[in-house]
Every structure is written in structure tokens, then in C-alpha cells.
Amino acid sequence: MLTVVxxxxxxxxxxxxxPRAAVDRDLARQTVQEIIAAVRAGGDAAAxxxxxxxxxxxxxxxVDAGAIEAARASCSDKLLDAIELAxxxxxxxxxxxxxxxxAPFWRTGGEGAWVGEETRAVARAGCYVPGGRAAYPxxxxxxxxxxxxxxxxxxAVCVPPASxxxxxxxxxxxxxxxxxxxxxxxxGAQAIAALAYxxxxxxxxxxxxxxxxxxxxxxxxxxxxxxxxxGFAGPTEVAIIADDSAPxxxxxxxxxxxxxxxxxxxxxxxxPSEPLVAAVSEALEKEVASCxxxxxxxxxxxxxxxxxxxxxxxxxxxxxxxxxxxxxxLVTADAAERVTQVRDAGAIFVGAYSPVALGDYVAGTxxxxxxxxxxxxxxxxxxxxxxxxxxxxxxxxxxLDIVAPVLVQIAEAEGLDAHARxxxxxxxx
Length: 429
Fold this sequence. Notes:
The chain is an alpha/beta fold.
């Protein structure tokens, strides 16, 4: 079920032989541009029309407080308790982030000169929560809670409705637990357009975050000069570096868990052990046979599932760094010592008892992660995504006297005489 890629002795670029699902961006972008233009021009009516075109039409864009409370009441006590526990763990992690990131600083640059910065949360944030193939209450918590902790004044969630036009009760229960201010039953590029530019019902936001399909991703790309975005997520992916100490059943379960998200998901096993590949392949047959989303899993594993053979674990790390996976599992006898070798990954899961599923739900870390190799330069969603900094400069005459010669020299070298004049006029008797 996993295609074997033998990189032993291959000194070339491993990316040439590792799969990511191919997507026709140009065709999708054209559709996205048409949707965004329609929503910008037509507001609520156009947003609802586009929603009906690509899914179910809700009774209205805004999900009212009564519907949210009714949905919450329909959930079991066990589910509500689970949502609250997950929310608390996510809060604790992101509150620690906020404490370390949000402090303003001031420093003196010499006599009569102070420079520093002040940080402010954005006024409004929009959280995109997928809802097509499954309900994702966890994504509500992962996106809305960091925004609230950052101090965002108003948080809106957009989520595609189910076939009956309603939003899944578990998703609405999570909105209540996270303190979401507004919920809209709309998905796809039309949701991103509504959040970015506003409609009669949806006030525009300052930042849009959250994962989605290629249309959501490209829509975020289209609006990113008008509104902040967290990143451009693609289909999900996992790379598992493992040696002979790894339980094959664990590896197989984790590959299937990622593959069930999306037929375009990528699932890699990177190992120097041929016996492990054989054992994992055998375990995969059993896992897939009993999987509820068997068709999606089989499509993903046949298309983007690979067992990558390498000379040793050092080479395995090199291959993983080149791929820069969204999720990286280290299931080796020396997993903890290997963490510092990893340069590029969205999240690292260390040891046999740290599956990706922990990060998806209850570890506390954020599950909105960079994909498609963007972990080379991007980070997980975090509190700072919702925060902007403003530089503050306060000079007195004494401070100006000290830096004036430097400024004049540089301004004149750049041919910007008016810059130098702006300083000289302040130094005239």
C-alpha cells in the first residue's frame, strides 16, 4: 500500500522523488477570483448564492445565539466536558505564549532619546473552520482561543453548513466554549471574501486565520494585501522517522489517521529499516480495512503514501528537513536527542507515545500548521498572529544633537536633502 522509494546511495534532491498532491492552481484561482468579485459587489445575496453553488444554502448567514445554545444543549455531557478540557489545555499553552510575546519594551538610546514599541491586538479577527468532510470543533478552539487571549475585541467564525443548511452542533458548542462573538454559516472562497471585505451581515475583519481547501487557501492569497492572513495551508501531511524500536502498529495507525483527513493527504515513513517497512505495510492492511473513511485513506496512501528507505537516521533527518512536513514524528530509540537536528517542520512529535492526534486535540499546541513545505519559513498559528507592533520614537533636543551628524551623512549620501533639512531646521539657533 505504501510505494517504496529507495534513497540509499541517492545524493540528489529528495524532493524530486517525494510526493505532494498536485493541484491545478491556475484553474482554481480563476474560480476564486470570480467568487471574490461577486461577493464584493453583491454582499449577502452573492455570498449566499455562491454558498448554494458549492454546498448547502443556510437559512441566513448569521447563526443566532438561540441556535448556538440549542446546538450546545443537543451535545452529550461527555462531549461538552471534552471540549472544555481541550479548551483549557489550549488556553494554558497560548497564555504562556502571550506572556512571553506581548510585553512592550523601552530602551534608552542615549541622553534624551528613547525608542521602543507598543503591541496591540487587532480589532477583529475571522476564523475559518472547515466543515465539508467532517466537523472540526477542535479548529474552533485552535483559532478562536489564541485570538481571545491576544485581546482581539471581536472574533467571527465562518464554517460551511451541512447538507441541511445547519452548522454541526459540536462546532457550535466549541464556538460557545471559545467565546466566539459571531458565527456565520458559510464556507469556501465566499467566506474569505465576506470576512475580508464585509457584507450587510458580516463586518470586515483585520486578520483571517484557519485551514481550508485549495479554494480557501487561494482566496486568502487573493485578499492578503487588504487583510492579514496566517498562512497558505495545503492538504495535510505527516512524515514519520522510525527505526527498529518503533511499534509497526503505531506507525500504521498514525499514517491512516493523517490519510483520513483528505484524499490529497501525504503520509511518509522514512526509515533505514527494511523489516520495519514490511511490518508497517502488513499492519496498514489491517488498519485500512477497518477504517470508516476507507476510500479516502486508500486514495491518499496510493497517491501520496511512501516508505522512504535511507542509509541511517541522520539521512532520515536530512530528508525530512528537505520535505519540511506539517507534522513530523520521531519514533526512534533516541528520539529526544534527535529533536535539535530538525530544522524544518510545523510540529514535532517525540517518541512512540506522542502521535499527531495529540496535537490535533489536547496537547495544547496549535494544530493550524504550515504545510506544502512552508515550514521552511512559516510557523504554527500563535497569539502573535493577532497582534501588531507599533514603533515609538521619542527624542529631546539633547538626543537629536547626538545623532544629527550621522543622519545628515546618510541622507546626503542617498540624495535626500530634505531629510537632512528636517533635522537641520531643528538645530538652528
